[in-house]
Amino acid sequence: MSPIMVTPYLTSIRQAEKDEIKAAMRTGQIVQLHGPPMVGKSVLIEQVIDEMQTNGTSNNVVHYSVDCKALKSFTEFLQRTFQSLECSSVNNLTSGRGLTSTLVLDKIQSVLKADPSRRHIFVFHKCEALRMSGNDHEHLKFLDCISRLSSSENIKVNVVFTSNVKFPTTGRDIEDVHLRMLTDDLDVESLLKHYSQCKSAMVNHIRICQRILAFPAGIIQFSQKFLNTASTHSAQSLIPMITSDPEFLASIFQRKLEEVTRMRWLDDRDLAFIARCRPVFLRTYTQ
């Protein structure tokens, strides 16, 4: 399976969060990367792995990327995981019949044994559907089995999964990394300058993004549409323009509305942040 395609966000931002993820990725450790939709969880873990490959040698890291979006059954999850290994026998199992946890784990074990000198990183993206469908126990148990191969086979193995709904981890050896909305002044400014052609002072534009569009995709689209060389609008005049532009807002939020119909992935801090935002942001993000 080919890696998930991600928006080419700047690699120079969110370094503190990337460092936190790297610190959590000890050999044999499971890492849960969770937070609201659209904050860049999948992008960030992909960047972390890219940096690991760049700082060492690309041949030292093997990356398995599994897209779990919309998977509602554990059987589908096993099939998708099996496909990520790019097995020669996968075509015989495309229907998922006969696929069991034991079979997939045996295949993973054989893949690891065939290449014991390298670090193997399994990343399961967008796992919230498994949580919401009640398959979280089987999911976490399976990930635990993968991580245990690190000690039993003396091979470096990491397991990371992302979700906008936090999985319960009581009694499990899982590191939680909570990725929040993007509000750091320097990171927001870096995105604005990189994706716009505007050369004016960015202070007021930064404040707008922090109040209304505090996630990378929103800031990027704001930069590209409203901050170009032909724009003569003041920062304050942009607020009503943004909040009254349904096409612009829909282009950012529409594909995510289904994923945020419930508020389970928001904690008190996130709720307080949204409460301070303009009503259009609250309506769009929670309708």
TrEMBL record:
Taxonomy, superkingdom: Eukaryota
Keyword set includes Repeat: yes
InterPro entries on file: NPHP3-like_N, P-loop_NTPase
Keywords assigned: Repeat
One family name in Pfam for this protein: NPHP3_N
Ranges in a coiled coil: none
Nephrocystin 3-like N-terminal domain ranges (all copies): 25-162
Transmembrane segments: none
Name by which UniProt lists this protein: Nephrocystin 3-like N-terminal domain-containing protein
Native source organism of the sequence: Biomphalaria glabrata
Gene expressing this chain: 106075739
